[in-house]
Every structure is written in C-alpha cells, then in structure tokens.
Amino acid sequence: MNYYVLPGTTIHGGIKVGFQFCDLLSQLGVKIVVATPDGTAPTWFTSSVAVIPFERVKADVTSADTVLFSLPQDYPSLRELPGRLVFHCQGTDPLIEPVIADPDVGLLSCWSQAHDFMRNKTGRDPVDVGISVSDCFQYEGEPKRDDVVAFMPRRGAAIAADCQRRTPDLSYLAIHNQIEPDCAHTMKRAGWYLATSVGEWFGLPALEAMAAGCLVASVPVIGGMEYLVSDSNCLLGEPETLPAAIERLSRTGFEEERARLRQRGLETAQGYRRSIQRRKLARSLQGPLGELLSWA
Amino acid sequence: MIEQITIVTHTRNSQETLPKLLATTAWAGARIVVDMASTDETRSIARQAGCVVLDAPVVDAVDSVRNDYLGEPKTEWTFVLDSDEHLADDAEEAVATILRQYGKAYDAIGIPRYNSIAGHVMRGSGWYPDHQTRLFRTGHVRWQPGHHRLPLVKGGDARLKLLEPEKNLHIHHYSYTSLEAFMEKQLRYARTDSYDMDPAAFDFGDYIAEAYAEYNRRFDREKDGDLSAALATIMAWDRIVRGIIHWEKLGRRPELARTFSLPIATVPPPKADPEEAVSKRDRKKPSGKLRAFSRWTGRGK
Amino acid sequence: MGMTVVIPSLGLNALLRSCIHALDTALRNAECEARIVVVDNASPDPYRKGEFGEHVDIMRLDEPRSFSIACNRAAFSAPNDIVLFLNNDVLLHPDAITDILETMRETGAAICGARLVYPDDTIQHCGVRIGGPLPAPYHEFNGDPSATVSRAVRDYQVVTGAVLAARFDLFRELDGFDEAFPFAYEDVDFCLRARQKGYRVTCAQRVDSVHFESTTPGRFVRELGGRVIFEKRWIGRCTIDSVRGHYLD
User: How many angstroms separate the CA of residue C133 from the nearest CA in chain A?
Assistant: First the structure.
C-alpha cells in the first residue's frame, strides 16, 4: 500500500499537485491513498483519490508499504514509521536538504530545476514524475476578452496594482480562493494572465493560464523557467519593468503580437497535458518509480 | 552527361508535368519511370525520352513502395524526383559540382525545394527551404511507410549533407494550383495514411497538440502574407482530421479529448454601462461630472 | 474463476424470471462457474423452490430487511472468488459478465460495475461521479443516448449496486455493505471504503444491459434515511471528481 501524506487541504498548489499525482498512479493500478491530518478531503479541485486520517496510516503502515510526502517538515515524524519513505519534491528551499541527504529516502522530481538541484546535492538521480495541467483548463474556444487580465493577488499584489495604474483600459480580475473550475472559467475568458509571485517554484497557475489561452505576463520564477520563454510564449519581466512592458503590449497595433504569444503559450501548455504525464508515469512504473512504490 | 546518376520517378497519369521533369534531367546517365497503371500518355512520353518504364501496382502512398524500386539503379548515385517536380535548366552543372564537393564525405544530399502553392512560391511558413533527401548513394537511403515521412540515411544524419538554400540547386515543386486542390490532397493523404491500431496508444490530445504546433510553425505573415495564415489553418486542421480518422479506425472507442479551437480570437468588450465607464475613467475626479452624465441618461438625480 | 450472484428481490416474480433467464445466458457465455442466490426479501407470496430454475438457491427472509442485510447474508453464505450483486429489474446483455470479468482483469480493479441503459437506449448508469461542493453522487451521462457516450473504460470512485461485481476477499475485508444504511447509498459507501484501502473501481463499457430502475414500490421515500447517514459520514471526507454542481456558466 502507498500513502501520500499531506499537511492539509487548503488552496495551495502543492496540495493539488500531490493529489493529481496520486490520481494518475491510481489510474495506472497503484494502490494509493492520501492521508491528511484529520481525514478531510479537498473540494476545491476534482480528484478521485480516497482520503484517510493520518492516524490510520500510523496504525496500518507496515515495512512493505511506501509513504510519500512533499512537505519537508513532515520528514522527522514520518521517518519514525516503518515502510519506505519517498520525497515528492515541490520546491528546493534549504528545508529539503536534510530530507534529500538521507540515502534511504527515495526522490521524485516534478520539474527540471528541482531535478538538477537534487542530483547535484546528492549525486543520486531523482525519478522524474513530471507535472501537468488539469483538463478543465484546456481552452475550448470560449469568448476571450483582450482587455481582461486575470491575476492571483495572493502574492505580489503590489505589482498587479502597479499594472492596473498603468493600464486603466484593462480590466483586472482577481482570482482569489476560487475552486479550480471557477479559476479555469475565468482564465479561459481572460485575454491575459498576470503572474506576480516572485520566486514562485513552478508557477503552475501561469501554465494553466497558457492552456486556457491567456497571454501570460510573468515575473521570473524558479522552476517555471523551463516553460516560460520570454517574447516567445510569454512576456517576462522583473517587477520594476513588467508593468511598462504590459502597457506597451496592450496598445493598439500590437494585436498580432498578443495573438502570437497566446498561440505559442497554448502550444507550450500542450506539452503538459495530463495524458502526457500519465504516459510518463506508466513508463516509469516499469522502472525506477515502480521500484520505489509498494505493490503490497 | 553525368553517367553515375540514375533518376527515379514514380508516375500515375502525369502527362501534364512529366515533360518538364524530363526536359531538365536529360543529362542523367539513366532514367527510370515507375508507372502505376497510367491511362494517359505518361508511358509513351517516358519511352520517347529514353526512360526505362517499369510497371508498379497502384498505391495511395508512394513512399511505401519507393523502397521496392531503389534496387533498380545500377549507377553509384540515385536521384529521386516526384512526377510533379522538375529542376532548373542549370541542374547538370549544379549536380556535378555537388558530387565533386560532397560525394566523398556524404552519402545523401538534402536539396532545398521551392513549393508553389496556389500560384505563390512559398518563402517561409515551414514550406521553405523544405530540404528533401533525394540525391543519394544508391542503397544508402530507405523510405519509411506512410505519407511524407522523412527517409532514413544509412549511417544517420552525419552522412547527410543539407545544401544551403542560397544560390544552390533546388527542386521545383508546382503541385497545387489552388487552396482547394491543396485541401483535397491533404484529405487524401489523411485518409490513406497508416495509423497505429493499438487503442492504448491513441491520444486525441496528441493531434490537438500537433495542430497548435503546426499552426505556429506555418504562420509566417512576413514571408508569405495572408496565404500563410490560410495554409497554417489548413495544416492545423489536417492534424485534427487525421485524429478523427484515426479514432474512427479504432471503432470510436477511445475517448476524444477536449475540443479544438484555433486560432484564439478575442471578442470586443460589451458596451460599457455609461456610468460605469465614466466612473472608471474619472475615478479620482470630482463627482460633478458623473452627475451631469446621469442627467443625460436619465439615471440618478 | 467462481462467482456468486446475489439478487435481492421482493415480489415481481415475472420480472425476476426474465432477469435470471438473461443472467443464465450471460454466465454461460462467460463460461463462469456460478452460484445464484435469490434473497426473497419478505415477498408476500414466498418464492417457491425451483420457481426460477433448479440451479437457483432461494434464501427466504420473512421480515423485510435492508438491501445491505439481505445482500450480506446471501454473499457470506456462499463465498466465492467474485460476488456479483444484481437488481431484479436488470436484464444483462449476453456478454455483460464476460465484459465485467475482462475489465476487472485488464484494469486490476477490485470492483466493477456495468453499463446500463433505460429501455429507450439512454444511459441509466455507466459510472457514478461525486459532484461538489457537498458530496453529491450522480450517474454520469444519465439520460444521454448510449451511442453518444464513450465506451472508454474510466476510473470511478463509485458504481451502482444494481450491478456490482467485487472481489470476495475485498468484500470480506470491508465486512460487506454497512448495515446501518436502511436503503440506498450503501453501495456508494462500500465503494468509497474500498477506495480508502487503495482499491480501484471501474465500470465495464463494451455492452449495454437494460435497467428498468426503481420498480420496487416506495423506493424514493426510503432513500432519505440513507442520504442522511451518507452525508454525515462522508461530507468533507471524500474527494469531488466532477465539476457538476459548482458555479459555472
């Protein structure tokens, strides 16, 4: 049995990525459930994975099982359990270093920056399990407004405010504490998505926005640089310069440029379809990933 | 005369285009026409030009049978041309130079091709330079089954020389007189292509992804104007049509992924509520202006 | 591969006869060794031995019991590799059991449902989705013409108990259906508990069997009690696998 331990169910990208990873494994025949502190299940995105309380893991886990986790702070307590530990890396801040230093902990990576980081630190090759965009974000021809900018004010609200001041003809739509289908609904109708979270790890919302057909304007992120290509599929800029760049690109006469970035963003997002990640996992289950998981 | 080259051409009712090909390849040591049961003057045109004419069964995808005839040339080099292609009038000198320069170090030459579509020779949009691996040391190239798959060179790409497009030999390809003719041909290719019949390998999303990639690759307004947009759209839809044909061949059992829409078109904003429009513009200005506007629309006091 | 088929039934003798006739054909085509147990759930006119064929066992209950109790009693009395729960108002397609067994084999699923249509060829069931934000189970594609609904095999959290095949070792591990449920939602609860053990649930899709649905009198009123128990147990504790019910255009 495989248990994926998560610290909660609040709206946080790492929670969704963990669940969606479990969804794909379950579809591929792996016995896996998610454990949350009190057994509550998230309802802000769709998933078919079963949820149990962590107490049940402590009672039931055996040495034949595998325990997966993505929050490095969980490592000390999980280390005490029988069973194989596997770390599903979703960020490379210093907190992960004692985790990945443990040679008995299996390593999974979602994106290339984290993969390279762990490999360089440990000399071990993590298993690349990828990351993908929920199907609900795929653009289907919804009427899209060139003058509407979606953004998440959770981090970097000041940057968004600066953009708003510079571009009074654009309408800014905040996506805050929304369930995933509502978020997708908004993105598919917005012409732009503004990503303002400096130092974000992967920045999945920006990729979701690409899949939704948005022109993505983003500050630099860490892991997400594997898909954000400045002036090719998005507008990339430092917080100090991004607002001016958006103002320029939003002017009359730049329609074709905006269209080009949207199309190329959509093309980029096609490489992160759920079915692609499923195929990657199916192959990996025949090899290194299959060796880390429990088949009991 | 370049004795060490044999031209190989597959034909089927090609009387319109074959004469130009023959006129520009008379310098070749030998010419073989592989004919698929032509009912027009193709065979007699070929014989009159001194070609060896071989019979071939009629097939949809000529690439799938090319390999069967690549053993016919007895010369060191083979040059494959399609019946709707021809060379320039100085091809003899150009080919001789190419063999002199590259004949020892390489086994195959990728020749840039001019594609004329609907009366326009394409200069970008993925249609140019469109290198074709057609001139090769006999026995060193094999075609893959299906339509328009890249031929494989024995020894890999290291043995293939791609000619620089500038001031070099070209293949001239004038096959589509109109966009309608182009679409018709694409549909024929799509219907007669080979498809993987393993349902587990089918993913309609792959076709959608290819459609977007194809559109972005082919859209090049700077080089080919509006025609580029038209062709980009046709080629993108070609991928989608192939996906649906594939799906039907699999008994329509696998799921179709989400619908496809291309390109992303933005819509104009709805007519703003006048009060809202004014309040947005004049957010920090005295409210007197808002009241005046309200009097005009009859709203408010 | 041995199978026990459990059919809880109250009255409706003629319908039950047709149900078993179709079942016999499906079992024969699947080349499946099977025991058939009809639970006579307090029919006013008790079923007679041999009424549905000599090969059919009849377990008589004089007091009407819940679906859970009736099914558990029959299933545990005749353990086998697979237990198949079948409604008396379902006419199985001749290849339905073959389809179920093959789907279980191909997917490794421990629970498998069947694709069911109404007499007008619209979907009655091809898998159950849990809509949100409250966990609201519903039959996916219900009412859609079967010809328009994909036959790709999909993962579900739940399938209907009208036709539900389960590995018997799993059934035993979970102690069968929860007998706290008076009527309805015990199948949903069973599947969700199985999912909490990591087992896979799916639905066979190749062929359509006919389900007349809800011919047992007084059904809809009796579902309420089960609904209350289900919500109390599962609100906030199961994932939502469908956007239906969320705010959207």
Answer: 6
Same domain, A126 and A165: no
| pLDDT tens string A158-213 | 999 999 999 999 999 999 888 899 999 999 999 999 999 988 899 999 999 999 99
Rounded distance between C-alpha atoms, residue B235 and residue B214, angstroms: 6
Domain that holds residue A89: 2-132+274-292
Kindly state the average pLDDT of the residues C32-45: 94
Strands C56-61 and C111-113: unpaired
**CB < 8 Å to A182, chain C:** 246-248
* Chain B, chain C: beta-carbon pairs less than 8 Å apart: 9
Q: How many CB pairs under 8 A join A and C?
A: 79
Q: What size, in residues, is chain B? A: 301
Chain C residues inside the 8 Å CB shell of A49: 195, 239
CB nearest A140 (choices: B212, B215, B259): B259
- The boundaries of the domain holding residue B296 are 271-301
Given a cut of 70, is residue B284 above it in pLDDT? no
pLDDT category of residue B187 using cuts at 50, 70 and 90 = very high
- pLDDT tens, residue by residue, B108-164: 999 999 999 998 889 988 899 999 999 999 999 999 876 777 899 999 999 999 999
Is the pLDDT confidence value at B65 over 90?
A: no
How would residue B59 be classed by pLDDT, with cut points 50, 70 and 90? confident
- Per-residue pLDDT, B32: 97
Which pLDDT value is given to residue B226? 86
B145 and B275 fall within a common domain: no
* Cβ-Cβ contacts under 8 Å, A171 against chain B: 269
d(CA C139, CA B4): 72
Contacts of A219 (CB under 8 A, 6+ apart): A156, A159, A195, A196, A197, A198, A236, A237, A238, A239, A242
Q: Where are the domains of chain C?
A: 2-234
Q: How far is B206 from chain C (nearest CA, A)?
A: 17
Q: Does C147 touch chain B (CB under 8 A)?
A: no
**Which is more confident, C15 or C218?**
C15
Q: Are B29 and B163 in a shared domain?
A: yes
d(CA C183, CA B238): 53
Question: What is the tally of structural domains in chain B?
Answer: 3
Do the chains contact at A40 and C246, CB–CB below 8 Å? no
Region of C205 please: left (phi>0), alpha (psi -120 to 50) or beta.
alpha
- Give the B-side interface with A, CB within 8 Å: 203, 205-206, 208-209, 212-213, 215-216, 219, 221, 257-259, 261, 263-267, 269, 280-281
Put simply, whether C151 touches B (Cβ < 8 Å) is: yes
Nearest Cα residue to A273 out of B213, C103, B251, B235: B213
Q: Say whether B209 and A146 touch across the interface (CB within 8 A).
A: no
Looking at residue A285, its pLDDT comes to 97
Reduced DSSP (H G I as helix, E B as strand, rest coil) percent helix, strand, coil of chain A, to 5 = 40, 20, 40
Partner-chain contact A141 B269, CB within 8 Å = no
Choose which CATH entry (3.20.20.100, 3.40.50.720, 3.90.550.60, 3.40.190.10) describes domain C2-234.
Answer: 3.90.550.60
Identify the residue whose tokens are 């939602």. Answer: C185
Token pair, residue B175, equals: 């096959």
CA quadruple A132, A137, A140, A146: dihedral positive or negative? Answer: negative
